[in-house]
Design a protein that fits this description.
The protein is mainly α and 141 residues long. The chain has ten helices and no strands. It is globular.
């Protein structure tokens, strides 16, 4: 498992190292409020949109941005999933901003759904990852 610059930038070095080693427990433990603030800034999300993307309430968004918030494993896993897909998209599109824009826009091959919204579920993540692979290898959708 590679750990690209998007993963390091979004998660921070400790989580990225654990992620690249496949150390699930350490990667999840390294997700912190700083990680969520970085995620919010990367994707330029307001509280409502962040709530939707992470499938949590808006009050939870407020709490998870506060220092000392103890991140539940399922929420940390969701963020790790998004970081992995961002890294895949950045690699395929060869540019971070293009990857971020693609993840936040309706994609014809995904029925005009927004990839970032699909990352809430494992099945949605597979659809997005498959489409990224098609882009990377020039396979028509």
């Amino acid at each position: 498992m590679r750990s690209g610059s998007a993963i390091i930038s979004l998660l921070g070095a400790p989580a990225a190292r654990a992620f690249s080693r496949g150390d699930v427990d350490a990667a999840i433990a390294a997700v912190s409020p700083r990680t969520f603030r970085s995620f919010k800034g990367f994707f330029q999300l307001d509280k409502k949109r962040m709530s939707d993307v992470l499938s949590v309430g808006e009050r939870t968004v407020d709490r998870m941005l506060e220092p000392g918030y103890r991140v539940p494993a399922d929420l940390a896993d969701r963020l790790l999933r998004i970081a992995r897909v961002l890294d895949e998209a950045e690699d395929a599109l060869e540019d971070r901003q293009r990857a971020l824009d693609w993840l936040k826009s309706g994609v014809p091959a995904l029925g005009w759904r927004v990839p970032l919204d699909l990352l809430r579920t494992d099945l949605g993540t597979r659809l997005v990852s498959d489409e990224i692979a098609r882009i990377k290898f020039g396979i028509p959708s």
